[in-house]
Design a protein that fits this description.
The protein has about 180 residues and is of the alpha/beta class. It has a single domain, classed as Flavodoxin domain (Rossmann fold). It is built from 5 helices and 8 strands; from the N terminus they run E-H-E-H-E-H-E-H-E-E-E-E-H. Strands 1, 2, 3, 4, 5 and 6 form a 6-stranded parallel sheet that branches. A two-stranded antiparallel ribbon has the order 7-8. Helix 1 (about 15-30) packs across helix 5 (about 160-180). The radius of gyration is 16 Å and the shape is globular. Bound molecules: flavin mononucleotide (FMN). Flavin mononucleotide binds near residues 12, 83, 86, 114 and 115. Flavin mononucleotide (FMN) binds near residues 15, 16, 17, 84 and 114. InterPro entries: Flavoprotein-like_sf, FMN_Rdtase-like_dom, NAD(P)H-dep_reductase. GO terms for molecular function: FMN binding; oxidoreductase activity. This is NADPH-dependent oxidoreductase.
């Protein structure tokens, strides 16, 4: 059984990311019914990580361990990411900096969203993923606050994104299976 983590990287109060992450997880489960793959939504907000390098309290040490163990438990990932100033949010970059062996030689796909979509944030993350030895899929889903949300806050994705998500899942599952053999 392949385990894929759907990782919500936004912690902003009132975030749009939660609806996108739930849609991604529900659709991924529906589109892969009968396959040997399972999906779990992981919310960064559930992990009260310190800034990397600062002195962690005992509670924060626990959060670091919990985050590390959770991320290590997956064979592949879908990062659900917004665009913040043409890049990844600070909170998510900080969380990724705690990881290395946990995600090494694993596959990664992106579902991005933002004012104009999240193309720049996703490309930013591909560089970071390269350094973490993760294999990023060619296809991503790119959602715009202008066309896939009502009033920029009520998530109503255009139908064609389902086709993109199906293509993304095919690539992610293939690579997650392949990379499992070399770990
Ligand atoms: C500090 C900040 C910077 C942003 N920069 C961009 C940007 O460069 N490009 C873009 O398309 N959207 C940008 N946005 C819009 C966000 O992508 C959008 O608000 C998104 O919903 C944020 O994710 P969240 O709601 O899950 O926190 C920015 C939003 C914030 C708060």
């Amino acid at each position: 059984m392949l385990k894929i983590g759907v990782i919500l990287g936004s912690v902003r109060e009132g975030r749009n990311g939660l609806a996108v992450a739930k849609w991604t997880t529900e659709k991924a489960k529906a589109f892969t019914q009968g396959q040997e793959v399972e999906f779990e939504l992981v919310d960064l907000l559930d992990y009260e990580l310190p800034f990397l390098g600062t002195k962690a309290t005992a509670k924060q040490e626990e959060a670091i361990k919990k985050w590390s163990d959770k991320m290590a438990s997956f064979d592949g990932y879908i990062f659900v990411v917004a665009e913040y100033n043409h890049g990844v949010s600070g909170a998510f970059k900080n969380a990724l900096d705690f990881l290395n062996p946990e995600v090494k030689d694993k596959a990664l796909a992106f579902v991005g969203y933002g004012g104009l979509g999240a193309a720049r944030s996703i490309e930013n993350l591909r560089m970071i993923a390269g350094q973490l030895a993760m294999a990023t899929t060619q296809t991503n889903v790119n959602l715009s606050l202008m066309t896939d949300f009502e009033k920029m806050s009520i998530f109503k994705p255009a139908d064609y994104h389902e086709g993109e998500l199906k293509a993304l899942l095919g690539q992610l599952i293939n690579w997650s299976s392949a990379l499992k053999t070399i770990r």
